[in-house]
Structure formats: structure tokens, C-alpha cells
Amino acid sequence: MENFIDHPxxxxxxxxxxxxxxxxxxxxxxxxxxxxxxLTQLDHWYQEELPGAIKARKERYVTHEELCKLMKWKLxxxxxxxxxxxxxxxxxEEEVEAxxxxxxxxxxxxxxxxxxxxxxxxxxxxxASAVLAxxxxxxxxxxxxxxxxxxxxxxxxxxxxxxxxxFMDHVxxxxxxLNKDQDADGIKWTQHKVELTLWTYQMAKxxxxxxxxxxxxxxxxxxxxxxxxxKTDDKVKKLKT
Length: 241
Known about the structure:
By secondary structure, the chain is mainly alpha-helical. The chain is 58% helix and 0% strand.
């Protein structure tokens, strides 16, 4: 799938996006049983429940409890840093709500939105991006290590706002290409869906590469050539991205 990043198609990316839960389960199974179970539960909460809770509010924000739980999700899914869990809990309910309200109001100015959240203790650009991706998936992508590593030339990783902006430039470019490529019944691509697909692609390459044996039917499907006598050319081959 050497063209997966450089020449994205909605067909192939949609197939990889559809593998997210399978890859997450593979990841959970190589963890300690209690941690693996915790990962799947927290991920379901972050991907399915938290966005709905934020959207249901008159003004978008996250609560102190949600921010602490989001941090737990982030550390369980990625690199575990127990001190960050303690530090994020030291923020007050009022501080969390005020900072997150301001952040969502700053959108679509993503740098300003990130800055509004990083005034909180233990919240850097990566965690801030996770908050914004949950509440505004069409405006922000989570700064996940695996998603960034999937993009050629982006390593070594940095956890700074300028680096996040660079990552987002790639994400926005891919999102635009995918939405332009899709047919009427295809996925409506957001920044967050692109980031999730990048995560899935990178993790699958490491943990379960056999899952990536997908075909892009929009550009590289079997092409049947019909000869002058009306017979199908037997030399046609399946092409893979």
C-alpha cells in the first residue's frame, strides 16, 4: 500500500477506517487483560459517548470529570505517564469549563483553540487536540503518535503547537482529497476520521499487516479488457494499492 498516503482514495481509506475496531482489539489483546479491557471501554466512551455529550450542550465544553477520563484514555491508548493523571486532576471544575468553552469558541482558529486549553495543568497540545477532536471532529484531529508516524517525513515527533500545525496541514490536505474523490454514498471525511484511519494504518502495519490487504476498487480494481472478438482478456491482473 505504498500509495496509501501520497495518493489517497476514498475507497481504500474507507476500508482501512472500517478496520479501526479490529486493530484496537488486536492492540488490547497484547496488553495485560485488565488494561486491554479498560482500553476498549475508554475508547468506546471517547469515540461514541463524549462527542454526543459535548454536542448536546448549548455551548460546547468539557467537564473536569470528562477531561480526567479523556486523559486516562489517551495514556491507556498511548504512552502511559501516571503523573499526568494526577496533575490533570488538580485543575478545578471552573478552570476546565472556562478553558474548554473558550477553546471551542476560538474555532476554526485551531492554534488559538489549542492555546486556550494549554493554560490548564498537564494539558499540552496533544491532549488539547484530543478535546477538540471529540467536540469538533470536522475542525481538529487528535495528535496521536501513530497517526503522525504514518505520514512520511514527519518524524521525529515533537509535541509542540508548530508541529501540530504541520501535522494538521497534512490531515487537511488528505481530507480534501478524500471528500473530492468520494461518490455520493461514500464517507463524509472529517479531520478526526482521517486521523483515526492514519492510526489504524500505522498500527496494523506493526501488529496485523494481513488486515491491510485491501483493494482500491475506484482506481486499481480488476480491469477487464475486451478484445475485438468480444472475449475477455485473460492477462488482466488484480492491482493492489
